[in-house]
Amino acid sequence: MIYNITAATGQLGSKIVEAALKVIKPEELILTVRSPKRASQYMSQGVSVKKADYNAEIELIEAFKNTDVLIYIPSIVVPNLPRVTEFENAVVAAEKAKVKHFIYVGFCADHENNPFKMSPAFGYAHRRLASSDLEYTYIRNAMYADPLPPYMPELIKREKLIYPAEEGKISFISRSDIAKAVIKIATDKKLQGNKYTLTGNRNYSMVELASLLSEISGKTIKYNPMTVEEFAVTYDQPKGFGTTLASLYVAAAYNLLGEVTNDYKTITGEETEDLYNFIKREYRSKLND
Q: What pTM, to 2 d.p., does this model score?
């Protein structure tokens, strides 16, 4: 079997490669990346690395040849149209390269009424796969837990959690847990061909999240949200990104980011790591660096 992972040097991609190398032989693994230099550490382990940009269909076809299972991770490009174009190129290339199974790893913001500015790209992905000639598995993951530990010093300084999510709840999952589930699906044909939503075992209101962060840090962090407009201006780096980020929390306020499922346990037979334990470990690890 040949497994091919795109965007393999990114934050999620590198976790998926790490999980893959625990159960897949290096010679059975291909990494499709824009910059092979960034994947040099994997080459030294015997992993094949191929150069391909999502906007270069011919490169993609060549990179995808002889692939049994392709794990596709979207880029973080904004706005929607470039990301939709990238995905379209990848689907067409996968069809032409005769990829046997396509695993899409996206975000649970594909609802028809979701105000998140990137929602159209996620909504397009499932419909495009359904209309393709590919056999596929569609994965939606909850909000990444990983950005919370490095955000703690700012929250402690502010003494408040400022997400404009109002009364909405958010579920979280770490990139490592997502990676474990993705590789389990990739290596177990019985799990393929389904739609999965990967989440933690509960969701959190912003008041509950602020309380959890206070307990971990030993500092008082209250929930005192900014307005959507203020949040967009505060985090507008790179320019234009603030509006997109703020719209994510508007989706949370609409109760669209709080889904909780048992899919992770169905796939792996295990529970996801508890959010408290994850943040506590990662935050204290950074303090000791």
A: 0.96
